[in-house]
Sequence to fold (206 residues):
Amino acid sequence: MRFRLTPRETSFYDMFAASADNIVTGSKLLMELLGADPSARAEIAERMRAAEHAGDDATHAIFHQLNSSFITPFDREDIYSLASCLDDIMDFMEEAVDLVVLYNVEELPKGVEQQIEVLARAAELTAEAMPHLRTMENLTEYWIEVNRLENQADQIHRKLLAHLFNGKYDAIEVLKLKQIVDVLEEAADAFEHVANTVETIAVKES
Fold:
């Protein structure tokens, strides 16, 4: 760890942890959506929308703290990048749930549950990693595992696309379902962006 003579604003650590915990909430709502009756999905979407708003509030709190802090725990651009990437995850998860409801999807294609399971695991790892930003210790396994999960998500996404284009679905249904699985893939990419940002911060602080 680099030795510092100046005090640092430490509330960022708590705010990053809160943002990541909210993402876990979002991933649980995605899991709940999988087993829900179509008639119950609108209510789940409402709760996801509330979680996404809470995520926005957490991100704005970080930005406000960043703008009002003279000394920060690490580079300002990295704080901004990490907060933005965490916010992106919630945005994508909320969008996926909203699309399922808006498109009145009767049944999600086989493989979506695997996508969501990957996202749930990445959410858990991200929430576990955020408190370690205080010391920058025990983070290597986190970003390695999230990168592995993102590669797994890529494979699942490709299989899903092949399934959607196998002739079982009509053209309109393909368009609807493809948009949903694409957004879930973007959420997986966003988890990797968070992990890459954490790795960048850790390297700079080592």
In short: The helical segments are 11-35, 41-68, 76-102, 112-129, 140-164, 171-205.
